[in-house]
Design goal:
Layout: E1 6-12, E2 15-23, E3 30-35, E4 39-43, E5 55-65, H1 71-76, E6 78-87, H2 91-96, H3 105-116, H4 123-137, E7 143-151, E8 161-169
Antiparallel strand pairs: 1-2, 2-3, 3-4, 5-6, 6-7, 7-8
Helix pairs in contact: 3-4
């Protein structure tokens, strides 16, 4: 059945059925075309959520926090923006419509917020803490993309933000 378009005969309940097997374009998922009075298409269960990449994301999350090399930055604070993308398998949640079968982005936010409340000198340190916490808290997360930007950094430059971008996969 792995060959494309090769007819085969299936015996079921003393009835002979002609069947052609095709692979869905770009996947290894077979589609069965069965010929009876009407053409019926049988697709393997979960065809739309099988072997796909899926992500939970938080875009442009704003925080006021106390991160910076200078003492004044840690005392006065600044605005920060986080963009976060977590690679997770959402197949089970897509079937059940149950938030317990996925990673709740509300829970992700609470974890990120808790780390942003801890002052640090370096954004790299903040990113490292966030990533460690998310991997520890959510064992189904396979990879994380995190961008942390400081708005109007005190460096005398005309720019919107400066920051750090990190991409990590679970070891």
């Amino acid at each position: 059945p792995k060959e494309r378009g090769r007819p085969m005969r299936i015996k079921e309940r003393n009835t002979s059925v002609s069947c052609l097997v095709f692979l869905v374009v770009g996947t290894n998922i077979p589609v069965f075309f069965v010929y009876w009075e009407v053409i019926l298409i049988f697709v393997i269960h979960r065809i739309f959520i099988f072997d796909m990449n899926s992500y939970i994301f938080l875009d442009n999350v704003r925080f006021f926090a106390y991160h910076g090399v200078g003492q004044q930055e840690r005392e006065v604070g600044n605005e920060f923006v986080i963009n976060l993308k977590l690679k997770v398998d959402i197949a089970h949640a897509a079937e059940t419509d149950d938030v317990t079968h996925t990673v709740s982005y509300a829970d992700v936010y609470e974890n990120v917020k808790a780390e942003m409340e801890i002052p640090s000198k370096l954004l790299e340190h903040v990113c490292g803490r966030i990533i460690k916490r998310l991997f520890r808290t959510f064992p189904t997360v396979k990879a994380i993309e995190l961008k942390l930007a400081k708005r109007n950094p005190p460096m005398g430059a005309d720019l919107d933000a400066a920051g750090v971008e990190v991409q990590c996969e679970r070891a």
